[in-house]
Amino acid sequence: MRVFATRHPIWTAILAIVAVVLLWAIFAVWPEGLEDVIGRKKIFLNALFNGVTLGGLYFLVASGFTLIFGLMRNVNLAHGSLYLIGGYVGFYTADITGWWLLAFPVAFIIVGLIGVLMQIFVFRRMEGEDLRQTLVTIGISIVLADLMLWSFGGDFYNITPPQWLSGPLDTFFTTGYDRRGELIFLRYPSVRIVIFLAAVVVGLAMWLMLNRTRIGMLVRAGVDDRDMLSATGVRIQLVFACVFAFGAGLAGVAGVVGGTFQSVAPGEDTRFLLASLVVVIVGGMGSIPGAALGALLIGMAEQFGSVYFPTYAVVLTFLIMVVVLAFRPYGLLGRA
Amino acid sequence: MVAIDRPSVTARPSGLERVPAAYWVVGLLLLVMPAFASGFFLFQIMGWAFVLGLIALSLMFLAGYGGMVSLAQMSFAGLAGYLVAIFGVSGVSAVSQGWPWWVVIPLALAITMLFSTAVGWLAVRTEGIYTIMITLAIAAAFFYFTRQNYDVFNGFSGFNSVLPPQLFGVNWREAVPFYYLSLFWAAVGYFAVLYISRAPFGLALQGVRDNPRRMAALGYNVTAHRVAAYAFAGLIAGVGGILLTWQSQQISPGTVGIQPAIDILVIAVVGGLRHPIGAFIGALIYVLLKTFSTDVLISLGLSGERFQLLVGIGFLVVVFFSPDGFLGMWDKFRESRNRDPLTGTDRRQAP
After folding, report:
1. Which of A62, A96, A306, B245 would give a disulfide with A279, using CB separation of 3.0 to 4.6 Å?
2. φ, ψ of residue A169 in degrees (nearest 5)
């Protein structure tokens, strides 16, 4: 950070100003004039919260994608299908057992197993053939999408969170004064907050595991030089299978989260595949912090876009991608 | 082929004699087909195959000669179709300008080329797998944009009743005229790609595909060649898109969605990316599958809706076993036929 500050003083200053303005906008009570120009603070805060929590969901999907890409250079365009499978598995688990929390490990394990199968039967057989891998995963995603449409139909499935998470939560963010001059505080669905915190925990755990443990060391070494790592006697294929299982499992967990946030339906697979593509393109391929940054940016852009200029929300997302690509072709935190 | 490979004693044949026999057969067959084929077959099967083949041809040109797999080709085609509907005549009179066709079509193609150049400029900053992802993201953005924008693109419903102009007093949407129209443009596209692949630009592009650093060292502008390839591919896709709009009479976000974009990739890959004819072979297979698979599936006792499953599995099998698509299979078959079963040597080379 200090290196960044000394190298790019102007950028640091701009970022600091943006951060200060944002903090002020979040915590202060807005004056009348500002509310006239860009609408009420409640709308702004809701868009911000929705953007951040959506970013958490995007991070869960995209981090698995970027982890797999970073280590194995495998582009898994069936990642969205894994997400959707996770959603359906989670729905049925929660529906049959009645335990919402149980949906997460079950989806993680089942989708992780599917990921291992894909790694063994598809990616291991065509190592280094990027284009073929991509095409095969596209084929797999077409087949999986139709199989799921066949077995689950075109209905919308909604995973209901348990009782203790269903109500709104009082936050300490003010939205303004009421008629008696007292502060009003924002109320926000508690399930979203809990899930966002869970995403943060998952992200931190991943970061710690990658940077502080032996397995993380193996994975990072594999990212840098795969051949050298296998020459030192590490069973690289086992590491590959484990990481693939973990990345796929994360997609499955994200499916449960997405099913609770929104809904599980056909078409969500491409939507989330695209979201994770844009996130990793913006954040940088193979970088976990990059995925977090990209997910936050894209989630905010989508929500703020849909609130403040509804018809052009997609264009805003796209514009971010274009600007990032034009100046940093490998993403914000990516390496060449 | 054999005669060209060996040093021939006689003078090199010129003009029409150099055209291979297969071209004569296929060309004649296509020209006289309206004499015996039904209108449905001409319009729905052959016409559609030519149009989809044109769009897949633009992908084949980029991927086969430029090494850039772009999933945005359907967006270029769709943009051209949209522009024809916006500037020309359509059922949505509130948006359509109703300009004459000789303004509309060149304008639509020019804007499409501009768009594809811009996309190309963006996409060539990255390589290989990144290109696929970025063009897929662009295709998705275009799809969502057309669906959300009501001022220009008329949102979810798009444009209907987009008809070709009544040029020379012919209704170009009737089976036989449309067949010849699409055949003409397919042939133009095919021979243009074939010609460019042997022209200096195409050769330089193939050089850039194989070794960009060496080409840059030789003084070629790598980026400019790639962007130019995108522009040319955009032109081909634009022509295909206009024909597609006329054939289906409408253009809507569904035409430019993710699924059609991937379908174009499936067509090009199944046909084979090494030769322009692959795009048309793939398109014909796809159209035949799409038209008749419902009947086949129902006769097998399955629901007719499982078309995508059939396409997906077929695509998987082809990609898994023959990365070069049907052209690759054909080459393998020819090679194995020419090989002597006893010695394993090439029969043609044997004395």
Report:
1. A62
2. -120, 135
Contact A313 B258 (CB under 8 A): no
pLDDT one-digit tens code per residue, B84-121: 888 877 777 777 777 777 888 888 899 999 999 998 88
pLDDT above 70 coverage of chain A, percent: 90
Place B3 in a pLDDT band, splitting at 50, 70 and 90: very low
Which residue from B101, B100, B102, B79 is spatially nearest to B152, judged by alpha carbons?
B79
Q: Are the C-beta atoms of residues B225 and B208 closer than 8 Å to each other? A: yes
Residue A326: its chain B contacts at CB < 8 A? 122, 125
SS3 helix, strand, coil % of chain B, rounded to 5? 75, 0, 25
Task: Find the CB nearest B323 among A132, A318, A325.
Answer: A132
CA distance B110 to B112: 5
pTM metric for this prediction: 0.81
A151/B147 Cα distance (integer angstroms):
29
Cα–Cα distance between A250 and A291 in angstroms, integer? Answer: 13
The predicted model gives A286-300 an average pLDDT of: 87
Count of CA atoms in the C-beta half-sphere (13 A) of B293: 18
- ipTM surpasses cut 0.85: no
Q: How far, in Å, CA of B193 to CA of B186, rounded?
A: 11
Distance, in Å, from the CA atom of A164 to the CA atom of A146, rounded to the nearest integer, reads 36
Residues 6+ away with beta carbon under 8 Å from B287? B44, B45, B48, B49, B52
Radius of gyration of chain A (CA): 21
Residues 308-327 of A with CB under 8 A from B: 310-315, 317-318, 321-322, 325-326
Tokens matching residue B312: 């997906």
The single-letter DSSP state of residue B339 is B
Question: Does pLDDT of B2 surpass 50?
Answer: no
Closest by CA to A316, choosing from B74, B144, B70, is B144
Mean pLDDT of chain B: 80
Q: What is the pLDDT of residues B142-152, one digit of tens each?
A: 888 888 777 77
